[in-house]
Amino acid sequence: MSKRRQSRSPSPADSTQPSQKVVKLELPATPVALPPRTPPSSPPPRTNLRNRDISKPFSLTEKTLQMVWSGCHYELREMKGCLGGAVDRANEHSEKTGAAWREFKRLQAEEREAREAVNDIERRMMELKDEIKAVECQIDAVQQKK
């Protein structure tokens, strides 16, 4: 018989651990104090949370929250900058493509007009050939009567 893993359900031993308090944080709509604009090559300093002592409780101080908040705003500004550049390039490409498309359509219309003109000229040439043949026939008829 194969043994199945059963999902662990809370046991009475688990209930002896202290319950963790849930703290609701309200962040201001605008950042408290944004650091001056730094070049993209130097992001804001980050806190090292990986090497902290896990035996001590972790608390978010106002300074830590401000650092996280300003870091988020820094990242958001960078993403907006990248996105803005991409949108600008796309708009420029779209304008160039649109201009090229309009030029293509204009040339297509000119070509269509030129073909129609050539067709009209060829049609008129055929009419003139028919008229020339009719006149030649009349000339031949007049010469035969003489």
TrEMBL record:
Keywords per UniProt: Coiled coil
Coiled coil: 104-145
UniProt-annotated stretches for the region Disordered: 1-55
Biased composition (Polar residues): 8-20
Biased composition (Pro residues): 33-46
Keyword Coiled coil assigned: yes
The protein's name: Uncharacterized protein
